[in-house]
Amino acid sequence: MKPVMPPAPAGLKNAGLYLHVPFCEDLCPYCPYNRVKYDEGLFARYEAALHQEIDLYAPYLAGTTLGSLYIGGGTPTVNAKGLQRILAHLRTAFSFSGDICIELHPRHMDDSCLAMLRSEGVTLLSLGIESTSDNLLLKIGRRHDGRSALDALSRARRAGFKTVNVDLMFSLPEQTIRDWEEDVRAVLDLGVDQLSTYPMFAFPYTDLGMEKRAHAVMRPPGRTIRKMLEVTDTLCTANGLQRCAVWSWLRPSGQKFSSITRHHYIGFGPSAASMIGTHFYVNSFDVNAYAASLPGKRPVALSMEIDKALEMGYWLYWRVYELNITDADFRRQFGKDASLTSAFGHALWPLCLAGLAEHTSEGFRITPSGAYWVHRLQNEYSLNYIDHLWGICRRNAWPGEVVL
Ligand SMILES: C[S@@+](CC[C@H](N)C(=O)[O-])C[C@H]1O[C@@H](n2cnc3c(N)ncnc32)[C@H](O)[C@@H]1O
Ligand code: SF4
After folding, report:
1. DSSP string of 100-146?
2. Would the CB of 31 count as within 6 Å of ligand 1?
3. Is the four-CA dihedral 117, 106, 219, 188 of positive or negative sign?
């Protein structure tokens, strides 16, 4: 990726928007995301710049109907009034047709905040519960307890959103299989629509990584991941949820909460990434540098050109992650004459022979044993990419060339 300004987005199909809110009340020591401690003055600078960034992009997207908005963090509701102003601006600047998804922290989602999100058109929620054990929450440096996290989940369920997803982390220090079973049961008992589970990684540039003197991303042993995923699959299936992605299980009546279903998207805020078909790019991670760049110039730190083959590879990567690779979606994205088997048969047929994928009437599906290996592959690829790119971008607001 190079420090080169990419062209403005044009001719996007089914594009989504991403909004990054990089503030948290407390910083969890294991967290790899771009976030800083909440500060009123810094938030005000961020918010003013964000409104300018929206205005800068509005002319490029005039006449385009956007399929969705994903709000991630950080803790997007750490300043609920500020978020409300940003949402109001996004809705006047762009035309939306689809869902609005948001990541929530159990400590920043009181009933008035949930009511505000409903009135602003938010439809899908994801709660970072992580664990229901006070002891484990304390060990990983989370500042909430299990009871208040489960209470937050009950309130979110009652508030009437389309889907409530819960994030749980496993392979925590000294966590037993029994602890994990209790976590999964507790959220399933409260009728969660979707469950996403993540093994805890130590990224070298986080406080946890430094404490462990990690030189590369440290991940739990394969057998722990396999065992915990088996337990999750058994409990979710018994409760009527089906696997909908490598890390997630969904109630069949629910709508999937996902950050990666949009092929093209424009990101707003520090560190937000954009994929506009011909280019992939990321904004500066530093809040002050991001704000100083606006309103004169788009705050893009690094970009790379994407040719057709790479764009197709990018599409395939995320469809494999979702375990379902369909001809119809491939043609929708790349034109009615595009052929999934011509483009990727050489990669997918051998997976079928090895029992890792199967051919279906719609295209290809990753089998349960394939899902485990996709999980491993996904870890390696995305962690190396995240660790390398995010590590550099966190150290340097305007980095030089980064070779991925
Ligand atoms: C941006 S956070 C969620 C929203 C909110 N900031 C919170 O923490 O509740 C996204 C999710 O990534 C997962 N996560 C964070 N750090 C991780 C790590 N080091 N390894 C694995 N998963 C991690 C957690 O499950 C977390 O809920
Ligand atoms: S895990 Fe969530 S709350 Fe904790 S620092 Fe990261 S983004 Fe903030």
Report:
1. EEEEE-GGG--HHHHHHHHHTT--EEEEEEE-S-HHHHHHHT-SS-H
2. yes
3. negative
Q: Say yes or no: CB of residue 200 within 6 Å of ligand 1.
A: yes
**Ligand 2 atom nearest 74 alpha carbon:** 7
Contact 242, 249 (CB under 8 A): yes
Ligand 1, atom nearest to 142 Cα = 8
From atom 1 of ligand 2, which residue's Cα is the shortest distance away? 31
Q: 74 CB under 6 A from ligand 2?
A: yes
What class has domain 16-250?
alpha beta
Q: Which ligand is nearest to the CA of 36?
A: 2
The per-residue pLDDT string of the chain (404 residues; one tens digit each, 9 = 90 and over) reads 999 999 999 888 779 999 999 999 999 999 999 999 999 999 999 999 999 999 999 999 988 889 899 999 999 999 999 999 999 999 999 998 889 999 999 999 999 999 999 999 999 999 999 999 999 999 999 999 999 999 999 999 999 999 999 999 998 888 899 999 999 999 999 999 999 999 888 888 888 888 888 777 777 777 887 888 899 999 999 999 999 888 899 999 888 887 766 789 999 999 999 999 999 999 999 999 999 999 999 999 999 999 999 999 989 988 998 899 999 999 998 999 999 999 999 999 999 999 999 999 999 999 988 988 887 787 777 777 888 899 899 999 999 999 98
Asked if omega into 295 is within 30° of 0 (cis), the reply is yes
Question: What spacing in Å lies between the alpha carbon of 154 and ligand 2's midpoint?
Answer: 21
Distance from Cα 201 to the centre of ligand 2, integer Å: 14
Residue 61 Ramachandran class (φ > 0 left, ψ -120 to 50 alpha, else beta): alpha
pTM of the model: 0.94
Q: Which residues pair with 267 in a beta bridge?
A: 18
Distance 244 CA to ligand 2 centre (A): 24
**Which of 21, 26, 31 best tests ligand 1's pocket when mutated (most atoms within 8 Å of CB)?**
31
Tokens 């790349």, located at residue: 334
| Separation of CA 297 and ligand 1 centre (Å) | 31
Q: Is the CB of 29 under 6 A from ligand 2?
A: no
Ligand 2 touching residue 319 (CB < 6 A): no
Closest listed residue to residue 65, CA positions, set 13, 121, 119, 10: 13
Q: Report the C-alpha gap between 162 and 33 in whole angstroms.
A: 26
